[in-house]
Amino acid sequence: MAYRNSGTNQKNTSEELFIGKENECKKCLNLVALPCLCVDVFDGTNEMRAGGEALNFAVHASRFGDINVSLIGAVGQDAYADCIMDSISDKKIDVSHIRVEKGKVTAHNRTYLTPDGDRYYKEDSWTGDIVDKMILNRDELEVVKRADIVFVHFWAGCFNQIIELKKKSNFKLAVDFDRYRDFEDMEKYAPYVDYFMISGEERLLPRFEEFSKKYNGLFNMSLADKGSVTYYSGTQYTVPAKEVNDIIDTTGCGDSYHAGFVCSHMITGDIQEAMIVGTEFATETLSHYGGFALESIQYGNGKSKFS
DSSP strand E in the chain: where? Predict the structure, then answer.
């Protein structure tokens, strides 16, 4: 069983924000994000926000008028699933490939916040077998194969399936390696990753510079309040973080940056501009709980500013 809807805005009346007047942009790039759909439950507050790397990425990618966005993932039949689907009911996202699995619990994460808004988790925070152990079926693999851009995080149960499919397909692959630090292991995947992204520290930059001289992808490292750095063919690109006076929550900040960075670069081909867009998205995310605002500003037609 899967969710079935039009795959487009159910509530949006601002059609001019997107290319064309049809439900789907026929000349747009097709993006697939998978598989982590979850709910962040903020301890000590009344906040329960839909999130997960794939969901956060997809929501921010849907702000680009030049990109059709599809999600692949799995949810149960519970309040967490309702939270996820309600949160994106007004977004330009195709949800028809999200499985609904009877008897399973939708992934959720109990999130704790420091006084400065930084999130942290405890050993029993995460409940997520439904996505951690997800293996793609034939139909889902065909959806991925037809995409122009695919986003996946390194810890996904289907990660190796995506790598194997990439070896014989033409889509661009964006991977979030998060805080993984085994560079010898990561290098095995570098030949197949077009957007190689991690959350890092400045001391790790030489490793990315080295990778960029050996492989053809963009190697992007987020450095929190120190901004971000991208290497391409040995050349370094740097964008500082924007000052934020009141940080509410850092959840999803990296996901929103990655969406802005990858989608902008796919459209414009400009690395520096893509990093600026990613930074704008991440800065906005810091101002609210969760990985995206319930009413997101739309980002139009590949332009370098919000419309």
Answer: 29-33, 38-42, 48-51, 67-75, 93-100, 108-113, 119-120, 126-127, 149-153, 172-176, 195-199, 218-222, 228-232, 235-239
**DSSP three-state, residue 239:** strand
CA distance 183 to 170: 25
Maximum separation of any 2 CA atoms in the chain, in Å:
50
The amino acid sitting at 114 is T
How far apart are the C-alpha atoms of 211 and 290, rounded to whole Å?
A: 32
In order, the DSSP letters of 50-64 are EE-HHHHHHHHHTTB
Q: Which two tokens stand for residue 74?
A: 């799995």
Specify whether the CB–CB gap between 198 and 223 falls below 8 A. no
pTM: 0.84
Where helices occur in the chain by DSSP H, the ranges are 53-61, 79-87, 129-132, 138-145, 159-166, 183-187, 205-214, 253-268, 271-285
* C-alpha 305: how far from chain center: 20
Can you give the pLDDT of all 307 residues of the chain as single tens digits?
665 443 333 333 222 223 223 345 567 899 999 999 999 887 887 678 899 999 999 999 999 999 999 999 999 999 999 999 999 999 999 999 999 999 999 999 888 888 876 778 898 899 999 999 999 999 999 999 999 999 999 999 999 999 999 999 999 999 999 999 999 999 999 999 999 999 989 999 999 999 999 999 999 999 988 999 999 999 999 999 888 777 776 776 889 999 999 999 999 999 999 999 999 999 887 777 667 776 433 434 433 222 2
> Residue holding tokens 């037609």?
301
CA distance 179 to 146: 30
Bridge-based pairing state of the strands 126-127 and 48-51: unpaired
